[in-house]
Write a structure and sequence with these properties.
This is Hypoxanthine phosphoribosyltransferase. Keywords: Cytoplasm, Glycosyltransferase, Magnesium, Metal-binding, Nucleotide-binding, Purine salvage, Transferase. GO terms for molecular function: guanine phosphoribosyltransferase activity; hypoxanthine phosphoribosyltransferase activity; magnesium ion binding; nucleotide binding. Its main location: cytoplasm. Pfam families: Pribosyltran (PF00156). This protein is α/β, with parallel strands linked by helices. The chain has a single domain, classed as Rossmann fold (3-Layer(aba) Sandwich). Helix content is 23%, strand content 31%. It has helices at residues 15-32, 48-56, 108-118, 177-180, and strands spanning 8-13, 38-44, 62-71, 82-86, 96-104, 124-132, 145-149, 155-156, 172-175. A six-stranded mixed β-sheet has the order 4-3-2-5-6-7. Helix 2 (48-56) links the parallel strand 2 and strand 3. Helix 1 (15-32) packs across helix 2 (48-56). Bound molecules: xanthosine-5'-monophosphate and magnesium ion.
Length: 183
Amino acid sequence: MLNVKDMIKDVLVSEEQIKKRIKEIALDIERDFPDGDVIFIGVLKGSVIFVSDLMRAMNVNVTMDFMAVSSYGMSSESSGIVRILKDLDFDIENRDVVIVEDIIDTGNTLKYLYEYLRARNPRNLKICCLLDKPERRKADIKADYVGFSIPDEFVVGYGLDYAEIGRHLPYVGVLKEEVYKKV
Ligand code: XMP
Ligand code: MG
């Protein structure tokens, strides 16, 4: 079986770069919510590693919750019509909420999720994503906190996967084209 490390063309964001950036993002969030009591909503499964590292970089109280969503449609691009597979455990009315995502690609998924959560009347609703592919954007949505802007290449690692492979890698790497262009 192919080892995941043989599937990576380049390391795009190193473990050290991620660690450093997470500390900076945590400070930005603390500056916006100095009293803490923020709810991080991780979007399963890609954001699990990011949300757990980000939480541990925070010096104010944060709690976490998770949502699981899947995008309708057969194409490789998300449609913006999203099915909620797991909803929140907590009420977010009048709370300060940060949606934590692995990557914004077209933005369709986050746009839907943002509107869905906005309807529950949180006091503040922010978006934090580790990676952003601005070239691919279709939906009108912008993250408040962005780890790294990256080119339009398929990446895995640090929570992101290709067919569930690669989530455990401590860095973000570009997948070799032959892995996903295989017919
Ligand atoms: P949209 O297009 O709605 O989709 O912004 C966001 C979701 O698409 C997945 N995605 C990726 N997953 N490597 C991945 O492992 C990538 O390069 C990539 N680009 C998009 C991801 O699930 C994200 O939440
Ligand atoms: Mg995702």
